[in-house]
Amino acid sequence: MVDRLVNSEANARRIAMVESCFGSSGQPLAEQGRVLVGEGVLTKMCRKKPKARQFFLFNDILVYGNIVINKKKYNKQHVIPLEEVKLESLKDEGQYRNGWLIRTASKSFAVYAATSTEKEEWMAHIEKCIEDLLRKSGKQPPSEHAAVWVPDNEASICMHCKKTQFTVLNRRHHCRKCGSVVCGPCSSKRYILRGQSDKPLRVCLQCFDELNRERARPPTQPTPANITPVKMDTAGSGGDSSGDEDSDDDDDRVTAEEKHDEPKFYGDSDKTEETNNHSSKDSAK
């Protein structure tokens, strides 16, 4: 079905519309062989709280952004190659229902659909795109994925020392290896985690020790290629903290509770649309 949509006029119009909605804040999305498979609003679990985000599923990438004006304008565009994605279904828990994890080597996060049916549709379409993409490329799915960050509001004290209470002065930080919320002194070490960045990233003391043990393993058990140790001062919570921010976590213009339309997944409707368009042109002759 995707192959049939590659050169369709409807597909080209949809991709052009997505580009126009992001405007100069987004990158060009039209490429040879790229198909817009579906679109809709999902609730993304951000660092501070769940927030509504607009998602666009293509046959090779997943794109999402902040909603400025629904169906008209989006910003803070994120593009995720599907060959790097692994999905993991989440069990319903309290107010968080119909969710799943989107895991990649550089970033992992949870999203939630409005209904169980929407969840099934999203996951099925994403999985199918990933399966087709890997089959055509001959690549293997990635084995290493970034940790999912624990939301700030789920930790009032440091998850490592179990003592430090978070205040305006005692900031929350996230370990990039395990995703735990930790205080400055308990996250004073850094490691280069290749899948996430070429720069040293904050890790908690427990992960730092585990990474060092992995490094000390015999040559027959090499250190994973995505992990490189670096030296860092242990002065406490000083140093950079800007990297702890979720880059799309600061826009509250559309909240997770707002009503949104059901997602749209394109397929047989294109055939009908194309047929109707050609029939109208023939009738006008």
Structure explained in plain terms:
By secondary structure, the protein is of the alpha+beta class. The protein folds into 2 domains: 2-145 and 248-284, Pleckstrin-homology domain (PH domain)/Phosphotyrosine-binding domain (PTB) (PH-domain like); 152-244, Zinc/RING finger domain, C3HC4 (zinc finger) (Herpes Virus-1, 2-Layer Sandwich). Helix content is 24%, strand content 24%. It has helices at residues 2-5, 9-22, 116-137, 205-215, 268-284; strands spanning 36-45, 50-58, 61-69, 73-81, 86-89, 99-103, 108-112, 173-174, 181-182, 189-193, 201-203, 227-229, 264-265. Strands 1, 2, 3, 4, 5, 6, 7 and 13 form an 8-stranded antiparallel β-sheet that branches. The longest helix is centred in the middle third of the chain and has 22 residues, at 116-137. It is globular and about 60 Å long. The two termini are 31 Å apart. Residues 227-246, 254-258 and 268-285 have low confidence and may be disordered.
Low-pLDDT runs of 5+ residues are 227-246, 254-258, 268-285
Q: What is the first-to-last residue Cα distance?
A: 31 Å
Q: Strand share of the residues?
A: 15-25%
* CATH H-level homologous superfamily name of the largest domain: Pleckstrin-homology domain (PH domain)/Phosphotyrosine-binding domain (PTB)
**Whole-number total of structural domains:** 2
Per the CATH scheme, the topology name of the largest domain is: PH-domain like
Report the helical percentage: 10-25%
Query: How would a crystallographer describe the biggest sheet?
Result: 8 strands, antiparallel
Give the radius of gyration: 22 Å
